[in-house]
Amino acid sequence: MFALLQKLGHFIITFFQRLGRGHVFLLQVFASCGSLLVRPGLLVKQMYSVGVQTLIIVVVAGLFVGMVLALQSYYALVDFGAEDSVGVMVALSLVRELGPVVTALLFAGRAGSALTAEIGLMKATEQLSGMEMMAVNPLQRVIAPRFLAGVISMPMLGIIFCAVGIIGAYFVAVILLGLDYGSFWSQAQAKVDLYHDIYNGILKSFVFGVIASWIAVFEGYDCIPTSEGLGQATTRTVVHSSLAVLFLDFVLTAIMFSK
Amino acid sequence: MSNNSGSDILVTITDLSFSRGEHKIFDGLTMEIPRKGITAIMGPSGTGKTTLLKLIGGQLTPDAGLIEVDGLNVHQLSSVELFKLRKRMGMLFQSGALLTDLTVFENVAYPLREHTRLSQPMIHELVLMKLNAVGLRGAAQLMPAELSGGMARRVAMARAIALDPMMIMYDEPFTGQDPISMGVLVRLIGELNSALDVCSIVVSHDVPETLSIADYIYLISDGKVVDKGTPEAMSKSQSAWTRQFIEALPDGPVPFHYPAPPLMDDLYQMKGLE
Ligand SMILES: Nc1ncnc2c1ncn2[C@@H]1O[C@H](COP(=O)(O)OP(=O)(O)O)[C@@H](O)[C@H]1O
Ligand SMILES: [Mg+2]
């Protein structure tokens, strides 16, 4: 009984310690981002490995999600004779929810885990300590560019995901199922609002970008520098950022789309 | 005492205490490291030699005690001042700690690009000179993953001397090397020290190699200095501790057993569990 209580207490204390460290770390990273103005090359390099290399999986996933959405909405709507609304249905689901969320989940799995593993390995091989001893701040040279690259890439990936998804839906609805080309596009155009839907979707993506990149770089920087600790940190990145994204999506949806 | 930047002593450690959790690593450690020559710090694995170098470099903060480098109290400096001090220190990590995504050339050029405004041709020339000093000019375009352990350490040496520091700290430079590259490293440390006329601190548990190059030796164990002196004095020392370490005896003041309750107690306890 006593041991159980002790374990619980230990768990709670380490949890809040980590939470505190994570927030201090985030502030330090924000403070370090300014140094990238002097070395934009570092950011560009990370934009490539974080953003561009995640592009393929985002495009492929977006295409299939759009195609499936079109099929399912067609089957549901055709009973009511409302199959002309497939376009708007798909566009709204993608822009408001699936675009930002699925992109963030893919990002956590593809880019987040890679970031954690890379930073953790740099820590384990003393590269971060080595930089510190060369009077170079690793937060500025290693962490800040990766974090910022994630934050900038995520909304772009989200937009691409939605665009490809809508093209996929167009392919299924108009070309395969033979719906009317004009009503597919005009309904979608009329019902999707630039501010209410698209900007809010991009804002969501941005928030997810901050969260997922923060968790990824923090887990790497804070990991126990052994092969076991590194494996655990990588797993935690994927699990925690996925849960955080899903939870925040609920909160943001409740705020943005409340009537 | 607070300002001895003109004196012969570069690093002063006074009554240093440091713990990791419950484990007390240093407990009242005191030593002085001269401005010139090679000072070796020896002790068995796990005594905290790496920890000591990190304390000197300001990466860790002591629980109590004072570390002064060139008259500056390392742990009272602002981060800007600490970085300024670190530019005058070179440190060689056990693993080399080369940046794995840069070539050998770029690794050595890294501190120059970060901290100086030298022109490209200048940097090129300097880097090749540093690499030449460690005999690896030909390896300039290799990636760190393509180097052997001994070569990686030599590149790290070239990087450590890139900014012409006043002191170089070597963490276990000989560990895990074959006899030939061990010999190369021993010779290099000696040559660099006399060519650059700096303070070299070599942390090691390799007895013959260290005895052969050091000007002065500190032996540490259990968080304290247990013996000190020149290599000749050390070889003749009557201290049981020094004898055990230098002659590599398995048991002595440093026990063969990790601290444990008597064997019988442990065995009985096992029975109790059944
Ligand atoms: N990051 C760390 N966290 C906790 N304990 C550590 C850490 N690094 C080293 N230690 C412990 O500190 C002691 C001294 O380590 P170290 O300075 O690496 O010894 P040495 O270099 O002499 O072999 C060891 O007992 C080690 O287990
Ligand atoms: Mg060590």
What is the secondary structure topology, with strand pairs?
The complex is a heterodimer of chains A (259) and B (274).
Chain A: H1 2-33, H2 40-78, H3 86-124, H4 127-133, H5 138-176, H6 181-191, H7 194-222, H8 227-256
Helix pairs in contact in A: 1-5, 2-3, 2-5, 3-5, 3-6, 3-7, 3-8, 5-7, 7-8
Chain B: E1 9-20, E2 23-34, E3 37-42, H1 49-56, E4 64-69, E5 72-73, H2 79-86, E6 89-92, H3 104-115, H4 120-133, H5 149-160, E7 167-171, H6 179-196, E8 199-204, H7 207-213, E9 216-221, E10 224-229, H8 231-236, H9 240-247, H10 263-273
Parallel strand pairs in B: 3-8, 3-9, 6-7, 7-8
Antiparallel strand pairs in B: 1-2, 1-4, 4-5, 9-10
Helix pairs in contact in B: 3-4, 3-5, 4-5, 6-7
The structure holds adenosine-5'-diphosphate and magnesium ion.
Short description:
The complex is a heterodimer of chains A (259) and B (274). By secondary structure, chain A is mainly alpha-helical. Chain A has eight helices and no strands.
What's the quaternary structure here?
Answer: heterodimer
Query: How big is the Rg of chain A?
Result: 21 Å
What structural class results from the helix and strand content of chain A? mainly alpha
Strand percentage of chain B, roughly?
Answer: 15-25%
Biggest beta sheet summary of chain B: 6 strands, mixed
**Radius of gyration computed on alpha carbons of chain B:** 21 Å
